[in-house]
Specification:
This is IrrE N-terminal-like domain-containing protein. This protein is an alpha+beta fold. The chain has helices at residues 22-26, 60-68, 70-75, 78-84, 99-105, 137-142, 157-177, 184-193, 197-208, 221-230, 234-243, 249-265, 272-280, 292-306, 355-371, 385-398, 401-407, 419-429, 433-444; strands at residues 7-13, 28-35, 38-39, 43-45, 51-52, 55-58, 118-123, 127-133, 145-147, 151-156, 322-325, 333-338, 346-349, 376-380. The chain has 19 helices and 14 strands. The strands form 4 sheets. Strands 1, 2, 3 and 6 form a 4-stranded antiparallel β-sheet that branches. Strands 11-13-12-14 form a 4-stranded mixed β-sheet, with helices on both faces.
Length: 448
């Protein structure tokens, strides 16, 4: 599940005899950034009123910012998770909420007195989200150039890493060619490139916790190493690190260990249905290129069709999993599940909640059972590509969009849908009204 956009960073070196700092002078350039098909650096010159697709700047500060925030740009999905909980989602970045993320994820955190586009890089698992906004209001009036475009694209995480690394290395090569001595950028990049596997794994784990690997993470180093040893499966480890409070790592690991031990001692009911569904859960060539949530919808439709369920029939998720509740103080972990040979999957739910909410957690767990080859898994609050897929699967398998549409009397549905209608639909499918509303907004309104 990779993003379909690209990030192109292009430049042309320029002479800058008036610039004094050697690293800035050596890397003076025309800079153009294109995300997807949009030019991020399209600007209007206030004095002349003309527009151009590049900016005049030194590339050294940007390269240094990339290097110093390398691990965050690769692995820190916590900002995406936090923003996903807000009604405005990524638009909240420009309502003051984004200031907390600007230093590590926003180009205007680069500083050094240069004018940069208001662009954020937000990891989302296998992909990264690139979001930027045009200058408006007082910002546009105060600056000699005004950035003109806004956009939001998804890019494959590996491709983003390659593009950023090539940029940093090109700047370092330029410094070397121009006879500039050792710089903080070259030192930092050499440290990153020279990291062995254990050090790189530690840095990525720290970034997933939202911690600077070289400073903030040091007091948690024992906990991080213990977590990596105890949760050896990469998906399980990553899901844990993406949501756990660093101060609660030890307590949450103890909860995981305890509930895994309890699951080992539980007896599960036989389940031929799950085994049959798992045998049918095979990717279709038609799914190539689908976005994460579209993939989840397609997988859910395959499961419902395989079970012979009509669009309006209630999905009896409780028949396919066995669950118990064992509270934990880590809000980001919703459940831990484990497959049992020949039996129903067993799920330990971490918080007591209404039946409609628990059914959604169970349905997300079913996605892991059917579509992932991992015996132990977590259901969490993270907002990576995988979580987008499992959430979409859960929503569609429990309350199919076509089933909702067929039960709606008024085709003019939007936020004005009567509360009583939402409650009736939610009651029929045994889900929350919020889930029904999301299904309507995500799948039905765009087609009406």
């Amino acid at each position: 599940m990779s993003g379909d956009a690209d990030l192109q960073i292009r430049w042309e070196w320029l002479s800058a005899p008036e610039v004094r700092a050697p690293e800035l002078k050596a890397t003076w350039a025309h800079l153009s950034i294109v995300a997807g098909s949009d030019c991020v650096t399209l600007v209007e010159d206030r004095e002349s009123g003309s527009s151009r697709r590049s900016i005049f700047t030194s590339l050294y500060p940007l390269a240094e910012w990339v290097a110093y925030n390398w691990w965050f740009l690769k692995a820190d999905s916590r900002p995406a998770t936090a923003l996903s909980r807000l009604p405005a989602r990524y638009d909240a970045l420009w309502s003051g909420y984004g200031e907390r993320y600007r230093a590590r994820h926003g180009l205007r955190g680069v500083g050094d007195g240069f004018l940069w586009p208001d662009l954020f890089i937000m990891p989302e698992g296998d992909t990264a989200r690139i979001i930027w906004a045009a200058d408006r209001g007082s910002v546009a009036e105060e600056r000699p150039v005004r950035f003109l475009t806004s956009g939001n694209v998804s890019i494959d995480g590996g491709l983003l890493t390659q593009r950023l690394a090539n940029f940093v290395e090109s700047v370092i090569d330029r410094l070397r060619e121009q006879g500039v001595g050792e710089t903080p950028l070259a030192t930092e990049w050499a440290s990153i490139q020279g990291a062995d596997t254990d050090e790189a794994d530690f840095c990525l784990a720290a970034a997933r916790l939202g911690l600077d690997p070289y400073s903030e993470a040091l007091k948690y180093s024992d906990d991080i190493v213990r977590t990596s040893d105890q949760l050896s499966d990469p998906d399980l480890l990553g899901d844990f690190l993406d949501v756990v409070d660093p101060d609660k790592i030890a307590a949450t690991l103890s909860w995981v260990s305890a509930v895994k031990g309890e699951i080992d001692n539980l007896t599960s009911r036989p389940s031929g249905d799950v085994a049959e569904l798992k045998s049918l859960a095979r990717p279709s060539p038609k799914w190539n290129g689908l976005r994460p949530w579209e993939l989840g919808w397609a997988q859910a439709q395959l499961v419902r069709n395989s079970m012979g369920l009509g669009h309006e029939q209630t999905f009896e998720i409780e028949r396919l999993l066995t669950d118990v509740t064992r509270p934990t103080n880590t809000l980001g972990i919703h459940a831990l599940g484990q497959l049992k040979d020949g039996g129903l999957p067993l799920l330990v739910v971490s918080h007591r909640q209404p039946d409609s909410s628990k059914r959604f957690v169970l349905a997300r767990a079913l996605w892991h059972v059917l579509w992932r080859n991992t015996p132990t898994f977590l259901v969490t609050s993270a907002y990576t590509d995988r979580q987008k897929t499992e959430r979409a699967f859960a929503a569609e398998v429990l309350a199919p969009a076509q089933g909702i549409a067929s039960r709606l009397v008024d085709d003019g549905v939007h936020s004005g849908l009567e509360d009583s209608a939402l409650v009736e639909l939610a009651g029929h499918f045994r889900v929350s009204t919020l889930l029904v509303q999301h299904q309507i907004e995500n799948q039905l309104i765009p087609t009406w």
